[in-house]
């Protein structure tokens, strides 16, 4: 499982104007249904839902399911547009004075970081301004945790993002999917679809995940510190 590319050492002050102009120029060509408005005066953040394209109903792609709920909450569920520069689906949404860039990679999980890093470069974002949403084996279904940076903890999508962004500072929303009893069942569990009983829990879980990440972004948009 490999990854590549780098957006390391990004300076927010020097990168942002160039990144914003590049994003406006490229997305105006690549996004037929989404036009970048002038940037709002507040912060800009990106939220990336990690997963495997074409497998949206699996436990491993629960991060993409959270992004779908986030888009519905923000009123941009019909605004997803494929961008070939990032190899991802993108949607833009306002959040108060801030702007959110929602991203669903169209590369496999172990190469998600290439899409995330490319979008971060286009929009002039540092690693600290990029949220990752992903599945977590070591938490039961229904448990959520917001982790502020750190190691990949064995998650290949996160490992790819760390490598491509050349940083481990990204905040991460970890969505519990539970670990099976037998180690040999882990791969089938992760790549499998949620059971009917689990699917009944998903709507509430996705709502709670959306609340958690929006509240955290609102708090950070109001001040300079990275709070818990």
Automatic annotation (TrEMBL):
<dbReference type="GO" id="GO:0004045">
    <property type="term" value="F:peptidyl-tRNA hydrolase activity"/>
</dbReference>
<dbReference type="Pfam" id="PF01195">
    <property type="entry name" value="Pept_tRNA_hydro"/>
</dbReference>
<dbReference type="InterPro" id="IPR036416">
    <property type="entry name" value="Pept_tRNA_hydro_sf"/>
</dbReference>
<comment type="similarity">
    <text>Belongs to the PTH family.</text>
</comment>
<keyword id="KW-0694">RNA-binding</keyword>
<comment type="function">
    <text>Peptidyl-tRNA hydrolase that cleaves nascent chains-tRNAs that are not stably fixed in the P-site of 60S ribosome-nascent chain complexes. Acts downstream of the ribosome-associated quality control (RQC) pathway to release non-ubiquitinated nascent chains from 60S and 80S ribosome-nascent chain complexes. Does not act on ubiquitinated nascent chains, which are cleaved by ANKZF1 for degradation.</text>
</comment>
<dbReference type="InterPro" id="IPR018171">
    <property type="entry name" value="Pept_tRNA_hydro_CS"/>
</dbReference>
<keyword id="KW-0820">tRNA-binding</keyword>
<dbReference type="InterPro" id="IPR001328">
    <property type="entry name" value="Pept_tRNA_hydro"/>
</dbReference>
<keyword id="KW-0378">Hydrolase</keyword>
<protein>
    <recommendedName>
        <fullName>peptidyl-tRNA hydrolase</fullName>
        <ecNumber>3.1.1.29</ecNumber>
    </recommendedName>
</protein>
<dbReference type="GO" id="GO:0000049">
    <property type="term" value="F:tRNA binding"/>
</dbReference>
């Amino acid at each position: 499982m490999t990854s590549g590319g780098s957006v390391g050492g990004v300076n927010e002050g020097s990168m942002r104007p160039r990144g914003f102009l590049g994003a406006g120029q490229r997305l105006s060509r690549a996004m037929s249904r989404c036009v970048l408005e002038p940037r709002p005066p507040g912060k800009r953040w990106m939220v990336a839902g990690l997963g495997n394209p074409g497998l949206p109903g699996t436990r491993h792609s629960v991060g993409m399911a959270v992004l779908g709920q986030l888009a519905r909450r923000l009123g941009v569920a019909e605004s997803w547009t494929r961008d070939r520069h990032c190899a991802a689906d993108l949607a833009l949404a306002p959040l108060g004075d801030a702007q959110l860039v929602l991203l669903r990679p169209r590369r496999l999980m172990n190469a998600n970081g290439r899409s995330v890093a490319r979008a971060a470069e286009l929009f002039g974002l540092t690693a600290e301004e990029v949220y990752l949403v992903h599945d977590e084996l070591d938490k039961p279904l229904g448990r959520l945790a917001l982790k502020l940076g750190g190691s990949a903890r064995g998650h290949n999508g996160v490992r790819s993002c760390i490598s491509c962004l050349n940083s481990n500072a990204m905040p991460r929303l970890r969505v519990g999917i539970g670990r099976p009893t037998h180690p040999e069942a882990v791969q089938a569990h992760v790549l499998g679809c949620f059971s009917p009983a689990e699917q009944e829990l998903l709507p509430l879980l996705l709502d709670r995940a959306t609340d958690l990440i929006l509240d955290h972004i609102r708090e950070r948009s109001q001040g300079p510190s990275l709070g818990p």
